[in-house]
Amino acid sequence: MCIAGYIFSCGALLLLFYWKPAWDVWANCIPCNLQEADVILLRTTDEFQKYTRKKVTWIDLSKLNLSVRDTSDSLFIADKDSVINRAIMKPELKVRSIQVQKIWYIWDLSMKQFQKVGSLDDSNSCYDIHDKFGTGLTREEQNIRRLVCGPNAIEVEIRPIWKLLFKEILNPFYVFQTFTLTLWLSQGYVEYSVAIIILSVISIGLTVYDLRQQSVKLHDLVEEHNKVQVTACTKDEGCKKLESHYLVPGDILVLEGKKHSLPCDAILIDGGCIVDEGMLTGESIPVTKTPLPHMENTKSWKTHSAEDYRRHVLFCGTEVIQTKPTGKGPVRAVVLQTGFNTAKGDLVRSILYPKPMNFKLYRDAFKFIIILTLIGVLGLIYTVCVYVQHKKPVAETVAMALLLFTVSVPPAIPAALTTGIVYAQKRLKNKKIFCISPQRINICGQINLVCFDKTGTLTEDGLDLWGLIPSEGSRFQNVYSFASGTPLPWGLPCGAMASCHSLIVLDEKIQGDPLDRKMFECTCWEMEDSSTAHSKAAVPDTSVIVKPGPNTRNAPVDGIAILHQFPFSSGLQRMSVITQQLGKDQYDLYMKGAPEMVTSFCRPETVPTDFVKELKVYTTQGFRVIALAHRALNMGKDVELDNLEREEVESDLTFLGLLIMENRLKAETKPVLEELSTARIRSVMITGDNLQTAVTVAKNSGMISKTSKVILIEASEPEGPTPASITWQLMEDSKQMAAGITDTCVNIEERTIPERESNNYHFALNGKSYQIIVKHFKSLLPKILVNGTVFARMSPGQKSSLIEEFQKLNYYVGMCGDGANDCGALKMAHAGISLSEQEASVASPFTSQVPNIECVPELIREGRAALVASFAVFKYLTLYGLTQFIGTALLYWQLQIFGNYQYLMQDVVITLLVCLTMSLTQAYPKLAPYRPPGQLISPPLLLSVILHTGITAIMLVCGFLLVKQQPWYSEMANHRESHSGNPSILTTYFQSCCSPSLEFAFSSSLLTSMLYTRECSFSALQRSGEFTS
């Protein structure tokens, strides 16, 4: 039946099914159980509920010549919990599968559902990872996994031009335009049809070129990682070289000493390594990876490692810059995920399949076109009635009816809108702002809230060491100022600064985190690898050795060997190292991190009683504060440091003091934030730094005015019978804090802040409190977000969540950042602006090559200009279409029609040129304190269109009737062949077409437009009489 429908409808039914895949499935398939289905209809769970048709494919394992397994409970995969074992149908040896957005799913015969493949099960414990996969897979198991999971490759096809072309041409509007042009050509309107074809080809060409360029860039970006030579080990064949696309989850990967890119996600199980995650996160800072502990427990390896599981994982796309093998053998890792399941694959998928933006302009535009189409249907009925009444032939009646139907929807709409976006994109490029998603430029015009990262975005990347406040005998000592130039004397604080870091020596240069580098430089010590060090100390070759430099004071130590690191993570907010003084057997542990976190691991008697007061004195001045701590470890020489859990040694520490670092604002920060505030655009800070420091930076930058009050919000988890609670504390200045701190509890439901005073209050909270509020005080969250300005100690996931919560409050959110913690938020925001040139920029719609926030107002200005131009073009073309529709309908009353050159004059010279040049107008240099309208279906716009169309129709009809009553008027014969038409109507209509052009050029309000239109209409009446006479 459907095939017959395709034939008899000349492909129209097939085209309809292309637009509506759900209808295609319902028409061609019979509903059945999921396990019996050959075709599956998928629907997204978001508000758009987009349908996708997927065909079930069969994977045949029999061609692998597997060893025969007769019993139904026999295993093909050594991991008995693997979904692959539950998916193989016996004895056929087949697996049902589907691919959704580059991810493969196979049918689980036990669970009766499709399960994702291409990664190891998260339920595996640390012991399982070592025991099941530590010796590698068999060749047979590798082949099975490779066939089921697919190759380890992130393959992004360079979409052929013909595919992009057909996809663009099959857009509903272009299909309607094709029908329109075919009709016009059949009626002999060649000139205008050719003009529209040329413009449409240019419009389609620009769109296809942009899509093709994006496809090529993305393909080139990922292609190099698909052809990496690696060393993998199997149980039966040992280690050998192979291409990375042959890797499967569970393989053993041997990491060699030379620099190389990682082709998959892997869990480190032996040895350590240092990787550069800049290509994935945007931060080119070496990160130390440690092996997964080999210990017996039943907890998932991710749960065991809590939020810090990433320290064991090597991510696809990152670069191994140094390996640290242990005495057991080489550095080894278990392949965790392959292909598009990897972290890099997930990033690429987010670019290939972005989350649809719910922008009301595009929905309203579609509704507007539907309304115009309905008006066209009325015109079609009107034409049929007129021509039937005059007993015209059926062919002519149908042709004229379809012609009037096509007049109501102007065919130049897509060309004009595309041109406007191209102009805006070119202007942004001239300002070194690059865009990979041009459709979001219009959305930028609606932004009313911008979130900023702090470090590297609002403030400078580098930190200056201001001073050290050592602690001794549970009391703070005098501040040691680094500005004095005097070398730091030896002591435990000096030992902590010299050794508690993740710096490495690479190419004879010290590389690592800027904070660590600055801290180490101030000690005047030197660093070298133990493998190249001329030391007689018995330390592992993988250790880093630091020694007093020539400019240091006489230190009673030869040097310190850094034996083991517990790396820093934003979730744990600390790092620690195990060290050994050269020539001694004593082990020491040094810790540094967030002061609140470090002191929680210290013995209370070693923490000064005025710790909180001293900390707030410096954080409220905008300093970044790092706490230092130490513990002497009593361990034997034979202890396995790699198997130590940080919880075993990170306890009973001695507090050493506070390291004070200065983070300066960028020169452009304050003026930009003032400009946004003047334009009534909210600014919010989302940072991983200390809350007090973040509040001070917000005040110094102008994000919070000096007269505004800041309320600190602290939420607590429920404990036993005590429910979750929130504390509201009014932040005082540093002088008052020095005198004492008083907490104030406020019930926000009993005492709400009046709207007129809301700008005088700003809420500030940390990530932990935010998470508790989301979980236990969800109804209170909108009230907090409306006045929330500073969100500190936020994890990457919390940043993305916060952006999403702001969007739920109908904010149009922009996000500007440059670091590792910003990638998710940049993707979630309506307009993510990356200041990084690394791969994180690919995941962001906009990238600025100028590394400061001046790009934010520039982008908003261009967005507003593009949005206003889009509204003006749409409104202008709507008025033009309706005016031409009315004029053509009046001509039909006399069985007349416009001539070819008259249509060409109206459609191209009067209308199209105006639309194409309208968007050339530059953006206004200042941000106005109001946004352009965000919806087409709004009372002012509808009133403008309706009144203008109504007045134009009245004047046209009046002119038509008035001219016919003149004594010099005579009825004309059918001059369709001459294409000249009725002079009175043509003159009146020409004036009516000119009026909207002039109106858009000079009008400043709705009243002005109405008066000018009426004046032009009366002028048209007068001139029509002159022309006819």
UniProtKB/TrEMBL annotation:
Residues 1-24 form the signal peptide. InterPro entries: ATPase_P-typ_cation-transptr_N, ATPase_P-typ_cyto_dom_N, ATPase_P-typ_P_site, ATPase_P-typ_TM_dom_sf, ATPase_P-typ_transduc_dom_A_sf, ATPase_P-type_domA, HAD-like_sf, HAD_sf. One of its GO terms (biological process) is intracellular calcium ion homeostasis. The chain crosses the membrane at residues 365-389, 401-424, 873-895, 901-920, 941-963. Belongs to the cation transport ATPase (P-type) (TC 3.A.3) family. Type V subfamily. It is a multi-pass membrane protein. It is found in: Membrane. One of its GO terms (cellular component) is late endosome membrane. Residues 1-108 form the P5B-type ATPase N-terminal domain. It catalyses: ATP + H2O = ADP + phosphate + H(+). Residues 230-351 form the P-type ATPase A domain. Residues 133-179 form the Cation-transporting P-type ATPase N-terminal domain. It comes from Gopherus agassizii. Its main location: membrane. GO terms for molecular function: ATP binding; ATP hydrolysis activity; ATPase-coupled monoatomic cation transmembrane transporter activity; metal ion binding; P-type ion transporter activity; polyamine transmembrane transporter activity. This is Cation-transporting ATPase. Its EC number is 7.2.2.-. It holds the Pfam family P5-ATPase. Keywords: ATP-binding, Glycoprotein, Magnesium, Membrane, Metal-binding, Nucleotide-binding, Signal, Translocase, Transmembrane, Transmembrane helix.
